[in-house]
Amino acid sequence: MTPTSASAADSRRPFARAIPPTPLPAQPARSEVTRTRLALATLAAAALLLGACATEPAKPPAPLAPAPVATIGIPLTPAKPLPPPSGMRMGLLRLEVSEFFPAGCHTIIPGTYREPRLVQTPRAAFPSVEECASLDSRRTLYHLAAAGSAAMDYVVFLRDERRPEGRPIFQIRKALEVLWSPDGSRAAITVFTGSNWSDVLLLRMDDPKPSAPIPTLEALEGVFSSYLAQAPTSVVALGWTASGELVLRARGQEALPPYSRFGYELLVDTDHLERRGAIRFLRGYTARAAADAAAAAPVATQTKTR
């Protein structure tokens, strides 16, 4: 390039000589940036660790002082309890849980109550694949599916020394439970009819056909109201005594508010079932429904005094 042409080029760029180019600041090496970041992170971690060590552990909150029991200025008049049935003693609220009495129930126990001694005898649930032999193994109850249109039914058979091939006793569709007596002359049949109902029938081996359901209302007179006694109830055969008496256990609940629960046990003289007094009340209970008891709880708390 000639000097003339260079002067012309410089005249077209008037700021080329007036403002010299500013050099960029020198960038640190990549290794120095990495070392700086690591040093900052280490300082931050050390500060957090020292702060955590210097902090005192949180103290548990001080226990609250018990609130004083309020005393109502206007005393509430409690409802008068119903008189106990004749010859019965009404227990206080039962707090412990037992096999029969639920927690919080009111017990009903005659003054002459003696707990019957039950004998363990064979029992079985039908329908199933089980056979149920008597205690002396002389008789056996079993079942087979019913033939024909009633395919859901099954037939209960009795096999004994006289009829080793078995003979049909009755046909049924409901579930049931068989409980032999100690001497094998009778069997209690609990039939679960559904809708919280069940009944107990008696099967005598000398005339093997099921009886009518064992009546229970007569033994409950003077203990439960007629409405409560006829509420949905599940009655089952609990066991036999050595003398051949049958113990029934029942539990039920009202179908209408307050849906109170109840239960009772009866002693049945199966040899004289047709006689009055053959079924005796042993013991029982009543219990308020959980929702009803919870609704009454605040009132009980207000009336409490020290």
Describe this structure in words.
β6 and β7 (about 155-160) form a beta hairpin. The protein is an alpha+beta fold. It has helices spanning about 5-10, 15-20, 30-55, 225-230, 290-300; strands at about 90-95, 105-110, 120, 125, 130-135, 140-145, 155-160, 165-170, 175-180, 185-195, 195-205, 235-240, 245-255, 260-270, 280-285. Among the domains are: about 85-110 and about 215-305; about 120-210, no CATH class. Mean pLDDT is about 75; it is low at about 1-20, about 65-95 and about 290-305. Helix content is about 20%, strand content about 30%. The longest helix is centred in the first third of the chain and has 25 residues, at about 30-55. A seven-stranded antiparallel beta sheet has the order 1-2-15-14-13-12-3, with no helix packed on it. The chain has a four-stranded antiparallel beta sheet with strand order 4-9-10-11, with no helix packed on it. The protein has a four-stranded antiparallel beta sheet with strand order 5-6-7-8, with no helix packed on it.
Tag the structure with descriptive keywords.
5 helices, alpha+beta, four-stranded antiparallel beta sheet, single chain, 306 residues, seven-stranded antiparallel beta sheet, 18% helix
Describe the sheet with the most strands. Answer: 7 strands, antiparallel
Name the average pLDDT: 76
The class by helix and strand makeup works out as: alpha+beta
Distance linking N and C termini? 118 Å
Order of helices and strands: HHHEEEEEEEEEEEHEEEEH
Low-confidence stretches: 1-19, 67-97, 291-306
Proportion of residues in β-strands = 25-35%
- Return Rg in Å: 44 Å
Share in helix: 10-25%
Helix run count:
5
> Which of globular, elongated, flat, extended, rod-shaped describes the shape?
elongated
**Strand tally, please?**
15
Strand order, largest beta sheet: 1-2-15-14-13-12-3
